[in-house]
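P.,

For your records, the input lines for the assembly:
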Amino acid sequence: MTTRRGFLASLLASAAVPRLSWADAGDPAYLAAAKEPDGQYALFGLSAAGQDVFRIALPGRGHAATAHPSAPEAVAFARRPGTFALVIDCASGTLAHRLEAPEGHHFYGHGAFLDGGAVLCTTENHIDSGEGRIGFWSRSEGYRRIGSIPSGGIGPHEILALPGDVLAVANGGILTHPDHGREKLNLDTMRPNLAYATMQGVTERVELQLDLHQCSIRHLATDGDTLAFAMQWQGDLPDPAPLLGLHRRGGAPVLCQADLAEQLAMEGYAGSVALSGGQVGITSPRGGRAHLFGLDGAFKETLHRTDVCGLAARGHGMIATDGLGGVMRLGADGMTPLTLAPRAWDNHLVRIG
Amino acid sequence: MIRSLAIALCLTAAIPVAGPVAAGVPEAVQDHILPRVETFAIQARALAVNAAADCTAQAVRPSFDNAWDAWLGISHLGFGPLETDGRALAIAFWPDKRGMVASTVAGLLRDADPVVDDPAGFAEVSVAGRGFFALERLLYAEDGSYDRDSYDCRLVQAIAQDLSRMAGEINADWADYAQRLLTAGEAGNTAYLSDKEAAQRLYTALMAGLEFDADQRLGRPLGSFDRPRPERAEARRAGRSLRNLEQSLAALNDLADALSDAPTPVTDAAFAQARAQAQDLQDPVFAMVDDPSGRLKVEIVQQSVRAAQTAVSAEIGTQLGVGSGFNSADGD
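Structure tokens returned:
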């Protein structure tokens, strides 16, 4: 029997839950995970000026976070080959949901929201077949699993929502198996691709020329028109292989390279990519530098910073984070430090909204 | 005496590095970096002057060796002035998996490219066509020596002049760059945002130098047990493979000494062992990797270099409160 008091309480609860926005979490512009000096891991909300807006403890090192477009919810993925993801209520700092990868699958560490934030998409490995999958989860049903499609390749890493509820997926091409940790099992035969998909399946796949088959396509950024994809070279180093490509639907990819010395200095590794103000940037923590290119693929400049990795759009420029605790602004005047915190910022910086 | 030393050690371990600049940074800058970049500038200048006076291979080789030795004294400082305009690679383009030095030098020779008469133009030639490895191709050409009035001769002079230019610029740039390291963490220093970042920079250079010696200088000729690759040894034509390793280890040992202001017995012993074992190889180009027992000796040197890396990490990294980069060590 429902008491009057209990009925009122449940009404209040249901009215309160879906109305929250990112303003209720302090209006952060970015999400970034970090390792703190005592060895703890936490998720931070950052303002556009790089100041802390909130801090929420995490149970361990994660990979990327995915921000809901309007509600103050962040999905934090365990590092691959992790089998869980945490939906964190950033307004209250509490765990809202825990997603478990379906049996026989694990997550790759990235996700994206479709349909105004109603559906979460996750990159996954179907372990027995090694086939990449994209999983779908319904937010309104408490992040219930509602289906999946093949990702169109092996080892899907970052996934991005494009205008019109189209997904872009970086199928990195690297086969791994949880029994072998992060060991790469197919370096001689790998063939990564960039795939476009809807919830019904993959609609377009883009492969690079065969001699670049060891360029693992891993991270993505878009301005809504051009898609930028960042790569990691899996062959012998040093090698001046391209680490960035630009693509438009139906067209041929444009590969971007700096001069020989600068290209080699990236050490075959791009950690993040961002696109803003008619420029595209990639970071190499191993090379201690970021490279900026024009949207025509022409190399613009190098910006130096030790262990720089996180990168996101900021106005007409960009913003970067590093493993020394620095948050930097990248603009026409080069790289300018914004803040320095006693923590190591982890791989990615995620823009909200 | 022993007791007070023990207390001092405990204090060093317990209290994080404090003060305006991290311990070891001023010593590394004043005692290690600045004298060495000056030595390189002097030796590269001597190389250019000697090559201008007499460009024949026999005449140039001694100052070529001196300049290369001086370069190995600083080649591990791969940040700041050494990476401006790709200088480090323009000075020493190796490893060269695709044979770019050979093809670039061959292209210049084939075309008798007049760029050799224009220093500013030559500075824009591909990094694979400049520096010690391009010069090595000419001074140790397989098809014999060249004449005084040949194009080869002018190319030797142009490369030597270009090396001298870069060495001079590195020396000049370091005067300013040293201030950035020494004022780490002070207002207005946008290169090093805390004192620890300067220490981290030098520590990373030390570790990367050891890694390069183990993975590249030793690792490339070692190849695999089934397929050793002696032809991949660095500077094989000039017979400098072992010499380059020994010079590099000496420089890294010196940096380790400068960076640490507490005793580092494990690091000292590891460097001493690696350097002694390298010297004992007495094989200038690691040709011995073709033979199983010879290969084992080279592998042992490689293990000792890796042991030095471990020791530096445990003793000096801990002392400075720094480690390998969070993202560069483990990306995804």
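Two observations worth noting. Residues 6-16 of chain A have pLDDT under 50 and may be disordered. The CA atoms of residues 137 and 146 of chain A lie 5 Å apart.

Regards
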